[in-house]
Write a structure and sequence with these properties.
The structure is a homodimer. Chain A is α/β, with parallel strands linked by helices. Chain A contains 15 helices and twelve strands. In chain A, strand 3, helix 8 and strand 4 form a beta-alpha-beta unit. The longest helix of chain A is centred in the first third of the chain and has 17 residues. Chain B binds a DNA duplex (30 and 30 nucleotides) through helix 2 and helix 4.
Amino acid sequence: MSGPTESRVTSKDVAAAAGVSRSAVSFAFNDPAKIADSTRQRILAVAKELGYTPNPVARMLQQGRTRSLGVLLPQDLPQIMENPYYSQFFVGLGQVCHREGLTLLLTPPLRNSMLKAIPYAAVDGFVVCGLEVDRGEVAELRRRGIPFVLVDSDPPEGVPSVDVDDQAGAREVVQHLLDLGHRRIAVISFDPGPDKEAYGYRGPLARRMAGIREALAGAGLAMDDLPLIEVPCTREDGYHAAKNLMLLDEPPTALVTLSDILAVGAIDAMHDLGIDIPGQISITGFDDQPEAAWVRPRLTTVRQPIIAKGRVAGDFLISAIRGETQHPHQVLHTVLIIRESTGPIR
Amino acid sequence: MSGPTESRVTSKDVAAAAGVSRSAVSFAFNDPAKIADSTRQRILAVAKELGYTPNPVARMLQQGRTRSLGVLLPQDLPQIMENPYYSQFFVGLGQVCHREGLTLLLTPPLRNSMLKAIPYAAVDGFVVCGLEVDRGEVAELRRRGIPFVLVDSDPPEGVPSVDVDDQAGAREVVQHLLDLGHRRIAVISFDPGPDKEAYGYRGPLARRMAGIREALAGAGLAMDDLPLIEVPCTREDGYHAAKNLMLLDEPPTALVTLSDILAVGAIDAMHDLGIDIPGQISITGFDDQPEAAWVRPRLTTVRQPIIAKGRVAGDFLISAIRGETQHPHQVLHTVLIIRESTGPIR
DNA sequence: ACGGTCTATTAACACGAGTTAGAAACACGT
DNA sequence: ACGTGTTTCTAACTCGTGTTAATAGACCGT
């Protein structure tokens, strides 16, 4: 009966059992040329017998590489995993990991701080997601010498980054509504978080807002003329926000939501209120997540290439890890997907 | 201008700059009681000045813990991430990580081998997913002394494991069809992989097949009487399989699929063929993934508690890591969700 | 038998931390 | 002045690996 809590067997144990030095064991595994084939075979046999496998952490320390990429996330794991956006992003990132033979370490905030999570992660580099307000994360990664890529942020100069042209996307979708004759347009935005007070809008949200403003300006409208509701990004919140908007004295004829999830909730609300889409109201989403094509009516939305974003972020990170010193900054395009949830005003 | 490739600063550098020993630096950070407060402040100041943060890998090696859980996966990352099943599973596992303050390391097969991936992962324990044919993974983890939990497998004795009562689920859904009067039932199964030849059905697939067989037996039918198609688990494959089944001389009146994805494809096929669901054919899924409630008609399916499975697996792993020597084996229940895609034979 | 070349093997170090035992410095009471 | 006790710091070890420089030994030709 081999004890269940047998202490882990190290290369020292193998060396002792085979009657050689520790170095010989290492050579047997890593550098067959430096050792006689007969003793190599003997060492390997003993190693197998004892069930020896090198300790990954020790090897990481010695080699200075971990063979895994880190993703520094802005929310806790359950929230991230519930969000289909990240599923797609991880598909793209996963393609790179697969190609390079790397693992993926998901690093949520530690005690509500992305910064605090950094020093505990054993990775070769970080993809930093949704860092809208930099609380020292960039400086920390920089001086620590860890390669990293910023995604969905306000990228400072000299840092590799990947973003999407949120502004153009928002502009186009609002322009689409204007072209259909809508003027009373309401906006349902996802919550900018507590940082809005101190910093105003940041990152993708700021760009989307700017895009909306830009399109409105072309029609002689201002943001302040429109009702705006900010809620957490769940279906229920979209539902309630939309319902409340329809109770206004002059209810909107079009609803611009900044996320498909909110739009789906809004569609539910209209359904319950007996309001026809797009006959009485037009609704738009953002992201083009799978739900957008499932709901009825199918959702007009702004598609952003999430999988490509993940893949490009991974590629940039790989090249940063390889020591290439360029700092590429790529902005991916959005596409307006017109489906059935928008129509002309009547 | 601080150089960009400044070599990482270690505790030795801090010690030298502060004129103390390395140990003092360590104490300043970890054990304030063992050092004079004045020098502690000085060390911390110097450390901050130099931008020192302890190396996570070195600490892991010394402390013998990594503060991260591993998930040993049966497929490559892109495939995993495309699969909504795993998104839900990771939500449950993420809850545990969040509670315990741990990170999550996704470990796909290395060169097509789960076994080979094990020695490269720096984790405190593994959740092993979908290990249907054990090629030494269990032995490897055991002798390495790494705690682990098996999920969706054929768990051997003395190993913590979490499973779902697939057999009961399959039995009930087939019974439901039998109760509706169906006798010509076809099965679309996901591909059992190349191991079927050598080992036959294994794991959840084996249990689901057994459940089907069991229900059929009650009605005096045998598995061999039914058409069975095995395909990879994608929507397109479900589509083509369903279409082919309808071309048979005596087409089935009910379609049992072993995954919602396949069922959704089958629904598409019936739509294209102009066959009414559930008027002319009944279709059932398995898992109750979000799509099941989105498609029209809404899918009758077997719900398995995926999030709970992830959470229980995480809990078992945590207690195994804590050294508790029980080997719990939990089987979660399924629920038959009857929606609109099944109806009485006519 | 001897110097030389070549090969198999090992001792010693590096990676970067945490930790134990003990030395040095100082205060105190007698 | 001496022993005792306390505080403050450090030398030296640990974790488990990979790698370099040096040693021991075998083999060869003359």
